[in-house]
Design brief:
Layout lengths: L2 H18 L5 H16 L2 H6 L7 H15 L5 H11 L1 H15 L4 H19 L2 E8 L3 E9 H8 L7 H12 L5 E7 L7 E7 L2
Antiparallel strand pairs: 1-2, 2-4, 3-4
Length: 203
């Protein structure tokens, strides 16, 4: 991994978050973030976590560094999540456009069903997620997850609840598929004992 390139890449998102929220001393904040992320990339924790092909540890660690920097300024978990998310708004809008196209397709549930099946297969292969069960039928996908490396990475740095940033991505994605898909999240691992979801074909 090119550490300097990664720090520069994700620093742009962090700078956007700072600018969007009207932070002062932006350059000082950027220096602190870059120093922290550089140390994190050089750590044994990163080496331990950067082994799962289906999880981008470089990206996840950048988000963790952002969270730690914002939290160090006295912000609540809720405010920290909102600030960091604002930095990635443009990235999120790109995926919104893709999801909007899928939403109008008559087979959008079947596409979502296939996403889940493929993701489950890949996660089992690399061990990044531990499933209690994974059930698939023609009109429904249901699963329960008891361990997720996204959450474990955040927990390593004492900010497990802030992994809600990543847990919410499923809700964000399925919210863009209202025509044929109903997504039900009963709980997630950022603040619960399991990630329990149902993806249901909307009749």
């Amino acid at each position: 991994m090119d550490t300097e390139k990664a720090i520069k890449k994700y620093g742009k998102y962090y700078r956007t978050a700072l600018d969007e929220d009207g932070f002062t001393d932006v350059e000082k904040r950027m220096e602190a973030f870059e120093a922290r992320l550089g140390e994190m990339y050089a750590s044994e924790n990163f080496q331990k976590h950067n082994i799962y092909p289906t999880t981008d540890a470089t990206y996840i660690y950048a988000v963790i560094a952002m969270c730690l920097e914002i939290k160090s300024l006295g912000y609540s978990d809720k405010d920290t999540i909102e600030i960091v998310n604002r930095g990635f708004e443009k990235r999120r809008n790109f995926f919104k456009r893709i999801i909007a196209v899928i939403n109008v397709l008559p087979n959008s549930f079947d596409i979502a069903r296939k996403w889940n099946i493929n993701d489950h297969r890949k996660r089992l292969k690399d061990g990044s997620i531990t499933y209690d069960y994974f059930k698939v039928s023609k009109d429904k996908v249901e699963y329960s997850i008891s361990k997720c490396m996204y959450v474990e990475m955040f927990a390593t740095y004492g900010i497990r609840p802030l992994c809600k940033i990543f847990c919410k991505t499923d809700e964000f994605a399925y919210a863009g598929l209202p025509k044929h898909v109903t997504f039900i999240r009963h709980s997630d691992l950022s603040d619960g004992q399991a990630c329990f979801d149902e993806v249901v074909r909307k009749v």
